[in-house]
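hey
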């Protein structure tokens, strides 16, 4: 009997070791293996616009960093609210993100009630970059300058139309700010993304468009659209837009309306998952492929920490809230 004691003790020790190992596995956070399936980036616009281009270009190299496919899911509508709401209501596990724009921080000022909690519904991941909006017309437009647009709008109140990629977007606000500072009455035509808006601009259904540089860069380069001005405080460093004047220097002093792109995850996403996503995104936007695709269209790459993005976004929310209130901008 005594000879069996050492064997029994050995087996019991083995049992305890296995039990402890199992307990550690159970106690380990589920995010430790992240990602073990595809990651989805929701683009709250129709395909073909600047946000879609940035997300798709970024997704290619980001998938290599994560070791999983990055899927782009276009959910346009309601000035980005439909796609943003879908992400807010997704599981906080890092597998569903939204490529946000300035509309994300402006909608709370434009909408009396949102289906999600703007302040508590999201976790910042990374600010991808900042770029100008561009005031463009089709190649055969009679408008050759910002002054021409202002003159036509004053001579024909309400008859000059401007397109944007959606109500509440940076392009919409760029147009509304333009109206207020020039004291003109122009008609806003919102679309479910830059793609369909550009199609109608080229087809002559609308007169001018305030668009992100990423959305119209190729059309400017191939001569289908003519850039009249950029909306930033200074001229764009992009070779394609370097000679394009600012709206401010074109007779509208004080005019500034930037555009930006940033990734958010649902609130409650584990900090280690946010860190992995931030690192993958940061490497992605520093690749030559990404730089060549977007920097030529005016995007100034950022790529800081989640905290940096959060601080920037809160500053933007406060700035645009003031502009919306002072200029009585609505999304009617």
């Amino acid at each position: 009997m005594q000879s069996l004691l050492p064997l029994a003790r050995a087996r019991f020790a083995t049992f305890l070791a296995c039990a402890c190992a199992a307990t550690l596995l159970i106690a380990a956070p589920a995010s430790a293996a992240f990602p073990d399936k595809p990651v989805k980036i929701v683009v709250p616009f129709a395909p073909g616009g600047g946000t879609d281009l940035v997300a798709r270009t970024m997704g290619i190299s980001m998938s290599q960093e994560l070791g999983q496919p990055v899927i782009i899911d276009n959910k346009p509508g309601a000035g980005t609210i439909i796609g943003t709401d879908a992400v807010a209501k997704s599981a906080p596990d890092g597998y569903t993100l939204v490529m946000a724009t300035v509309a994300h921080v402006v909608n709370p000022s434009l909408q009396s009630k949102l289906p999600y909690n703007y302040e508590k519904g999201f976790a910042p991941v990374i600010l991808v970059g900042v770029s100008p909006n561009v005031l463009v017309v089709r190649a055969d437009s009679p408008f050759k300058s910002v002054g021409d647009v202002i003159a036509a709008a004053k001579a024909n109140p309400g008859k000059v139309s401007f397109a944007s990629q959606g109500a509440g977007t940076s392009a919409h606000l760029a147009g509304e700010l333009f109206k207020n500072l020039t004291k003109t009455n122009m008609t806003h035509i919102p679309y479910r993304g830059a793609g369909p808006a550009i199609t109608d601009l080229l087809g002559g259904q609308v007169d001018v468009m305030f668009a992100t540089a990423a959305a119209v860069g190729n059309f400017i380069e191939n001569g289908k659209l003519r850039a009249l001005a950029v909306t930033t405080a200074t001229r764009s460093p992009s070779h394609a837009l370097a000679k394009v004047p600012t709206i401010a220097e074109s007779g509208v002093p004080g005019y500034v309306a930037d555009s930006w792109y940033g990734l958010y995850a649902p609130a409650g996403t584990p900090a280690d998952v946010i860190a992995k996503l931030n690192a993958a995104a940061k490497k992605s936007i520093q690749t030559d492929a990404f730089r060549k695709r977007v920097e030529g269209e005016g995007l100034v790459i950022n790529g800081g920490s989640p905290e940096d993005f959060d601080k920037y976004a809160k500053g933007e929310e406060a700035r645009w809230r003031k502009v919306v209130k002072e200029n009585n901008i609505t999304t009617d």
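Strands lie at 39-43, 70-74, 96-100, 122-138, 161-164, 187-190, 208-212, 225-230, 258-266, 300-301. The domain at 36-131+259-327 is CATH 3.40.190.150 (D-Maltodextrin-Binding Protein; domain 2).
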